[in-house]
Design a protein that fits this description.
- Helix 1 links the parallel strand 1 and strand 2.
- The protein is α+β, with helices and mostly antiparallel strands.
- Helix 3 packs across helix 4 and helix 3 packs antiparallel against helix 5.
- The chain has five helices and six strands, in the order E-H-E-E-E-E-H-H-H-H-E.
- It is elongated and about 55 Å long.
């Protein structure tokens, strides 16, 4: 399957280092190899990032299952106290009220670690059945890793 360059955020550094032993398995290198020849400027990881055969900027070239939204799961919460407490805990975990609402509505994707945290929270409050996010999407992980 062809690599979709449109998925790469314009702020996400790619890598041109073909000499890196990890290059063939690195999403940064694969993305760079798929850049059009007409492109002249893009953020880039420099070759000095590789130390002793490994690179701290390495991102495995594989798709990850992201979740989109948790409205359906949250609608199953019956206790007003649980709704208030869980919303407060989720807001704290996700960093802000705005991020909470963007994640709940599906505007912002949840990575596997965030999904696990949310599922644990629901379980801790006694909600263990039908814990599914609204939708799942397989995509590359272009989260901020710098």
């Amino acid at each position: 399957m062809a690599f979709d360059l449109n998925l790469v955020p314009d702020w996400w550094p790619v890598c041109q280092n073909a000499d890196c032993p990890q290059s063939t398995n690195c999403l940064r290198y694969v993305a760079c190899q798929n850049m059009p020849p007409t492109l002249t400027v893009w953020p880039c990881v420099m070759s000095g990032a590789m130390k002793d055969g490994s690179c701290s900027f390495f991102v495995k070239n594989e798709k990850v299952r992201f979740a989109r939204g948790f409205k359906i799961m949250f609608a199953r919460v019956k206790s007003r106290d649980d709704i208030f407490t869980m919303r407060r805990e989720l807001t704290g975990f996700l960093g802000s009220v705005g991020t909470y609402y963007r994640c709940k509505s599906g505007e912002r994707l949840l990575n596997p670690e965030q999904q696990q945290w949310i599922l644990r929270l629901f379980s801790q409050h006694g909600y263990t059945e039908d814990l599914e996010f609204d939708e799942y999407i397989d995509s590359y992980n272009f989260e901020r890793t710098l």
